[in-house]
From TrEMBL:
The keyword Metal-binding does not apply. Gene3D superfamilies: Spore Coat Polysaccharide Biosynthesis Protein SpsA, Chain A. Transmembrane segments: none annotated. This is Glycosyl transferase. One of its GO terms (molecular function) is glycosyltransferase activity. PANTHER family: GLYCOSYLTRANSFERASE, GLYCOSYLTRANSFERASE EPSE-RELATED. Belongs to the glycosyltransferase 2 family. Keywords: Glycosyltransferase, Transferase. SUPFAM superfamilies: Nucleotide-diphospho-sugar transferases (SSF53448). It comes from Candidatus Hamiltonella defensa.
Length: 245
């Protein structure tokens, strides 16, 4: 079972090394790693060449944002399973992909997801917040829930039939996709109760400067799928409070 990992990069020289090393260290061997770079002007491509021992393909060209880059990667993927590892994320442990593959082989789901922890962007690695997903139910989506997108792995055949990311959404296309795949299309999903991925603070979804844009886009998704209006947005934020304790 081949797992394709897609990484979108743009001027990611400060974080990409940790991402690449975490893939290099994975014990699972049947990996395809596709990097879609948005025409970086810093040292990103040189670092990929130096540290990307398991990189299968690199594309570097201007794109329309992160989700456009991810869609390109999905279209190029040849693996049975597709997952995403952003340029400021890394696997939490060396057997993460092995656990993901084992879950697909033993439970035969359409997709899996797990838990995620936030760590400082620089300096000593420590857990700042922990996102414990829990088992999903349809009801949870109406209460603002979604799984951590970087822990989500889905069959390539599902991407082909269900489509990729809505690139009109610059921040919340992952939210849109999770609702569409899991709630609307009812794919079979299995939860792995482990921290699979570390996300570094300061990315597009964690910067305060993007909170208003995030609000507008999340409301678009909530209204698009009739998830309950503004109260669902509030519940979505309240769901995150336990991450700090």
């Amino acid at each position: 079972m081949k797992i394709t990992i897609i990484t979108a990069t743009y001027n990611s020289e400060t974080t990409i090394i940790d991402t690449l090393k975490s893939i290099n260290n994975q014990t699972y061997r049947d990996i395809e790693h596709i990097i879609v770079d948005g025409a970086s002007t810093d040292n990103t491509l040189a670092l990929i060449k130096q540290y990307g021992q398991r990189v299968s393909q690199v594309i570097s060209e201007k794109d329309k944002g992160t989700y456009d880059a991810l869609n390109k990667g999905i279209s190029l993927a040849t693996g049975d399973i597709i997952g995403l590892l952003h340029a400021d994320d890394c696997f939490a442990y060396d057997k993460a992909l092995a656990d993901i593959a084992h879950t697909f082989k033993t439970h035969a789901p359409d997709a899996i997801y797990g838990d995620l922890a936030y760590i400082p962007r620089f300096g000593k690695r420590r857990l700042v917040r922990t996102w414990l997903s829990g088992e999903h139910t349809d009801k949870k989506f109406y209460q603002g829930w979604m799984p951590p997108h970087p822990t989500f792995y889905m069959k390539r055949s599902c991407y082909k039939s269900l489509g990729g990311y809505d690139i009109s959404l610059k921040i919340a296309a992952d939210y849109d996709a999770m609702v569409r795949y899991m709630l609307i299309k009812k794919i079979k999903v299995v939860y792995i109760p482990k921290i699979l991925v570390y996300m570094k603070m300061g990315g597009i979804s964690t910067r305060l400067s993007d909170k208003y844009a995030s609000f507008k886009e999340e409301m678009i998704v909530i209204q698009r799928y009739q998830l309950g209006g503004f109260i669902t947005f509030i519940k979505k934020k309240l769901y995150k409070l336990p991450q700090f304790f």
